[in-house]
Amino acid sequence: MERNINEELRRLHVYSIHEELLPFIGTHYTDYRILLVGESHYLPDPANNPGYKPKVESDFFDWYKKDYVDIMTETNPNEKDYFRTSNLVECYMRDRRINKGWTIWYNTGKILAEVLTSINPNVDAFSAYQYVAFINYFQRPEINNGGSISASEEDKDWAKNNLNDVRKILEPKETIFLSKKAYNCYDPKDGGNISVVSHPTCPWWNRDNGNGKKDREKFKEIIQKIIK
Description:
33% of the residues lie in helices and 8% in strands. The protein is built from eight helices and five strands, in the order ααβαβααβαβαβα. The chain has helices spanning 5-10, 13-17, 29-32, 85-95, 103-116, 153-170, 180-184, 215-226, and strands at residues 24-25, 34-38, 132-136, 174-177, 194-196. It has a five-stranded mixed beta sheet with strand order 1-3-2-4-5. It is globular and about 50 Å long.
């Protein structure tokens, strides 16, 4: 009987409440089984959304207990659209997004395509994501748009346990953290092949990391070892 991976994921506690956070799984994921782990989603930026009422920490006290109710008005964007993981990656690929807010996928997509073109010459920075799975580590969006998440101990516990469960289901050959903050909150002793690079939107992606390499070069080397 063929497995239904998304149904297995939906049984996990976080996704049974917040289905919008389900990981993105590319159509060719099982070719190489690479799981990319970002940091977190963000809520809308009030500066770019006139009339939007920003959230405060108290709005998230029951985040891991019940569904999040959108506050919808004509001037209030659908907040869930900002953290529908799979939809966001699909939007990046479909609309070929390269502007701010999408560079985590574009910067990694370019490297993936450089390696994958030896297998499929038609792959580009957008279609390359069909060969990986993507998840954000923290399962609660940050309220301050563009900032690094202020994770509570509860956030950290849920993130770690959830990623462990996701890895058991997806069975990745390599789990690559695209955030050192997220990686440092995880316990690499939990098993499996796990690596980490700086966030693809930060200066260290293109800057010597002290070992004579840029982190984008490190990312490429990791991918090259998997895709031969």
